[in-house]
C-alpha cells in the first residue's frame, strides 16, 4: 500500500508551467472552450506571442490566485500550421501525431461514437489551437475570456471555429447526479495536496515533461528541449450523457427509489453525495461525501471480492488503487491521470425519465505525459474490457462502449446479481489530442522563422 508523507524531492519550474496543468478547477465554476484554426503562419505566431501572457502555475502570480485562468494547447496540425520544423514534429509522441480520430477504433469510439458522427470540426485537421478559460463566476470569466479574445482579434489569419460553454450544475454534481472532482493525485513538487492521504505523490514526470516519472527515467520529450520541457499532453473529449436512459434503466430494475440509488452507486462506486461504497456500502452518507478529508481516504485491499464496491464499478475501474497489488505486474501508479472534467448543457429535472432532446454531458480533459499508457491504457484495458478483473466480457457500466448486450455483476450474498442489457449511456461527440507548451515554449513558437 502506498502511504503519504514522502517529501517532495523535485523542484518544478512553476514559472514556466501553464497554471491549468497543475491547479484544479474552482468549485463552483463557469468556463468556456474555444477552438481556433490558423490560416496564416505569421498570424499564428503572433497569436502565440499574445497568448504568452498566460500566467504560470507559480502560486504568487497564478491566475487561480485571482480566480481565473486560460490554458493554451495545440494539436499536431496546429504545430504544422505554425511551421514547426520537421525534426521537432517527428519527436512528438506517435499517438499525438496520429490524433484521436485516427485512433478511434482502438479506443472503442465506434458506432454512434465514431468520428463519422462527431460534431464538426472536432477530429478534423482544421482544429489547431484549443483555449480553455475557467473561473468561479461569470464576471471573472468574462474578463479572462476578453483577454483571450484580444489575443486573436484583428488577426485575419486566425479563425474561431468552435466554442463550448460549461458550468457547474446547481447540484454541484455531474449530469448523472454524482459529485464530481474527487480523486486527483498529488504531483510531486507541486505543493498541491492530493485527495487520498494513502497515496504518495506521483512523480512529476507522469504529468510534466523534463522530470523523472514513475519508472525512474525521463518520459520521451519533444525537441528542442526548449519546446518540450515543462509541457504536457492533454486529451479533450466532448461526451454526451444519456441521463434519461440511465435513470430509466435503473427505474425498470429496482423496486424502490432506495434500490435505484443503490444500483446507481454500485455502477459508479460512489453514492450521489460522493460518499464511496468502500466506506459506506449500504447507504448514502452525505456528511462523508462532503468531507474532502475523508471522501477519498480508502483503498480496496479489504474488499477483494467487491462486496462493498464491485470490481467492475466505474470509479474502481478508473483507479483500482491497491486492488491489483496481488498481481505484482500491475503498477497502478503508471496509469494515474489528472482529470479536469466540466459539465455542459442543462440539467435534466429530477425524476424525469424521458429524453428532452437537449445536449448535455461532460467535457473530459486528461493531463499526462504518456498518452498511451495513461489515457489509452485506462480507456482500452480497464474501461472497455474486464480481463484485469476476471470478467472479460464486461465493460464499464457507465462510460463503457456498451451495445444493449452489456452485463454488470454485483457481488452479493447468497447469490450475485447481474444487470443485463446495458445500453450506451455516454456517446462521444468528438475530441482531440493536444500539446500544452510551457511558457518559454510559447515564446519559441512565436519566434519561429521557418
UniProtKB/TrEMBL annotation:
Keyword Lyase: no
Cofactor: heme b
Keyword Cytoplasm carried by entry: no
Molecular-function annotations in GO: peroxidase activity
InterPro entries named among the record's database cross-references: Dimeric_a/b-barrel (IPR011008), Dyp_peroxidase (IPR006314)
NCBIfam families, per the entry: Dyp_perox_fam
Assigned protein family: Belongs to the DyP-type peroxidase family.
Protein name in UniProt: Dyp-type peroxidase
Organism per entry: Pseudonocardia adelaidensis
Amino acid at each position: 500500500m502506498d502511504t503519504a508523507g514522502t517529501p517532495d524531492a523535485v523542484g518544478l519550474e512553476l514559472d514556466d508551467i501553464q497554471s491549468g496543468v497543475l491547479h484544479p478547477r474552482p468549485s463552483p465554476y463557469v468556463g468556456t472552450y474555444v477552438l481556433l484554426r490558423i490560416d496564416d503562419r505569421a498570424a499564428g505566431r503572433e497569436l502565440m506571442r499574445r497568448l504568452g501572457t498566460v500566467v504560470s502555475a507559480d502560486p504568487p502570480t497564478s491566475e487561480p490566485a485571482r480566480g481565473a485562468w486560460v490554458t493554451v494547447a495545440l494539436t499536431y496540425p496546429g504545430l504544422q500550421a505554425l511551421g514547426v520544423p520537421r525534426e521537432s514534429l517527428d519527436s512528438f509522441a506517435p499517438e499525438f501525431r496520429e490524433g484521436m480520430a485516427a485512433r478511434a477504433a482502438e479506443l472503442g469510439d465506434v458506432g454512434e461514437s465514431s468520428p463519422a458522427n462527431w460534431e464538426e470540426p472536432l477530429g478534423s485537421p482544421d482544429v489547431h489551437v484549443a483555449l480553455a478559460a475557467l473561473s468561479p463566476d461569470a464576471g471573472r470569466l468574462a474578463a479572462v475570456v476578453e483577454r483571450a479574445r484580444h489575443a486573436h482579434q484583428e488577426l485575419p489569419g486566425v479563425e474561431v471555429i468552435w466554442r463550448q460553454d460549461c458550468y457547474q450544475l446547481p447540484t454541484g454534481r455531474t449530469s448523472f447526479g454524482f459529485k464530481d472532482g474527487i480523486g486527483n493525485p498529488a504531483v510531486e513538487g507541486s505543493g498541491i495536496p492530493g485527495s487520498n492521504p494513502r497515496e504518495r505523490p506521483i512523480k512529476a514526470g507522469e504529468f510534466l515533461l523534463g522530470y523523472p516519472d514513475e519508472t525512474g527515467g525521463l518520459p520521451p520529450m519533444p525537441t528542442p528541449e526548449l519546446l518540450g520541457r515543462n509541457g504536457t499532453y492533454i486529451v479533450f473529449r466532448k461526451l454526451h450523457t444519456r441521463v434519461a436512459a440511465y435513470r430509466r434503466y435503473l427505474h425498470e430494475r429496482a423496486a424502490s427509489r432506495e434500490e435505484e440509488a443503490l444500483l446507481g452507486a454500485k455502477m459508479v462506486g460512489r453514492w450521489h453525495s460522493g460518499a464511496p461504497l468502500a466506506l459506506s456500502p449500504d447507504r448514502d452518507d452525505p456528511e462523508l461525501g462532503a468531507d474532502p478529508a475523508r471522501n477519498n481516504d480508502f483503498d480496496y485491499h479489504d474488499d477483494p471480492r467487491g462486496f462493498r464496491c464491485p470490481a467492475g464499478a466505474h470509479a474502481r475501474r478508473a483507479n483500482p488503487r491497491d486492488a491489483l497489488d496481488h498481481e505484482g505486474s500491475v503498477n497502478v501508479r503508471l496509469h494515474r491521470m489528472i482529470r479536469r472534467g466540466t459539465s455542459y448543457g442543462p440539467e435534466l429535472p429530477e425524476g424525469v425519465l424521458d429524453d428532452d432532446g437537449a445536449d448535455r454531458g461532460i467535457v473530459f480533459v486528461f493531463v499526462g505525459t504518456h498518452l498511451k499508457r495513461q489515457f489509452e491504457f485506462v480507456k482500452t484495458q480497464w474501461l472497455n474490457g474486464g480481463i484485469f478483473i476476471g470478467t472479460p466480457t464486461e465493460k464499464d457500466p457507465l462510460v463503457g462502449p456498451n451495445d444493449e448486450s452489456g452485463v454488470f455483476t454485483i457481488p452479493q450474498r447468497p447469490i450475485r446479481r447481474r444487470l443485463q442489457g446495458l445500453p450506451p449511456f455516454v456517446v462521444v461527440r468528438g475530441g482531440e489530442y493536444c500539446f500544452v507548451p510551457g511558457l518559454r515554449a510559447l515564446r519559441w513558437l512565436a519566434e519561429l522563422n521557418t
